[in-house]
Amino acid sequence: MINKIYSFVEIARLDKPIGIYLLLWPSLLGYVLAGINSELELKNFLIVVFGSILVRSCGCVINDISDYKIDKLVKRTLNRPLALGSISLIEAWLFFLALSVMSLLLLFETNSLTIKISIFFAFLIILYPLTKRFFVAPQFILGITFGSGSIIAYSLESNIFSMSLAILYSGIIAWIISFDTYYAMEDKNDDEQIGVNSTAILWGNNSIIYSKILHIFFYMCLLTVGLINSFSYLFFLFFFILIYLFFHQSKIIKEEKYIEAFKINNWVGIVALASFTFEIIYLG
C-alpha cells in the first residue's frame, strides 16, 4: 500500500518539487505585479500556490500517460511508475481525473475572467506532451503554457491587463524555453534515437548560445517592467545576484552538467520574485 501511494507521488513528481517551483515563481511574479494597481488578497495567493501544485501534477501525469512507451526507452525516465508498471494506465487516468477535479474546484473559487483564461490554457497543458511528436520546438508550447500562470495569477487581482504584464509574460516564455532547453540537452541522444523533438535537437550546437540569449531577454524584460513602473534603485540591485546566477549557470553548462544548470533557475525565480515583492509590496 505504501509503495502504491509513493508511486502516485512519483508520477505527480511531488518528490521532485523543482518543477512546482518553476511554475510557481512565474505565477507569483504575475500575482505580485498586479499589486501595483490593487491590494493583494491572501486568498488569491493561496489559490496561486495550490493551483501551481495541482496544475504541475496534472501536467506530469498526462505527460507520463502520453509518453510511457517512450519512457521505457530513455535511461532517465525508464523508472517512472507507468514505464515501470507500478501504476496501471487506468490508475494513471483516474489519478489525472481526480487532480483535474480538484483543480476545477479551486478554479471555481476565482472570477469569471480567470476561469476563461485558465480553461483556454488547460487545453494547451493536455496538448503539450503530444507536441513533442509533431512540433520541432515543443519548448515554445511549454513556455506559453507554463508561463500563463503569470497572466492567470494577475487576473485574480485585476481585469485590466497592462503593458507591464505583456512584457513580463514575454520574458517568462523566453526564460522557460531557455531552461527547458538545458533540460532537453540531457536527453538529446535518446530523443534523437526515438524521434522525439526538442529545441536541443533543433538548435544543435547553437542550443547553448540561443538559450543564453533567451535568458538575457528575460532579464531585459524584468528591467523594462522596473523602468516602466519607476521602481527604486533597490530593485535593480537584485540584478547583481541575477547576473551572478547567469554566469554561474554558464560555468555549469561548460561542464555539461545540464540538469544542474536547469536547477539553478529555481534561484533565478526566487531572486526575481524577491525583487518584485520587495519593490511592490514592501516599498509600495
TrEMBL record:
Which reaction is recorded as catalysed by this protein? all-trans-octaprenyl diphosphate + 4-hydroxybenzoate = 4-hydroxy-3-(all-trans-octaprenyl)benzoate + diphosphate
Alphabetical list of Gene3D superfamilies matching this protein:
UbiA prenyltransferase
Q: Which UniProt keywords apply?
A: Cell inner membrane, Cell membrane, Magnesium, Membrane, Transferase, Transmembrane, Transmembrane helix, Ubiquinone biosynthesis
**Per the entry, which co-factors are needed?**
Mg(2+)
Judging by the UniProt lineage, the source's domain of life is Bacteria
The record lists the membrane-crossing segments as: 20-38, 44-62, 82-107, 113-130, 135-154, 160-179, 216-247, 267-283
What cellular component terms from Gene Ontology apply here?
Answer: plasma membrane
Indicate how the chain sits in the lipid bilayer: Multi-pass membrane protein
Pathway assigned to this chain's UniProt record: Cofactor biosynthesis; ubiquinone biosynthesis
An example Pfam family from this entry, by short name, is UbiA
A GO molecular function held by the record: 4-hydroxybenzoate polyprenyltransferase activity
Assigned protein family: Belongs to the UbiA prenyltransferase family.
Its function, per the record, reads: Catalyzes the prenylation of para-hydroxybenzoate (PHB) with an all-trans polyprenyl group. Mediates the second step in the final reaction sequence of ubiquinone-8 (UQ-8) biosynthesis, which is the condensation of the polyisoprenoid side chain with PHB, generating the first membrane-bound Q intermediate 3-octaprenyl-4-hydroxybenzoate.
- Protein's recorded name: 4-hydroxybenzoate octaprenyltransferase
Instruction: Please report the organism this UniProt entry assigns to the protein.
Output: SAR86 cluster bacterium SAR86A
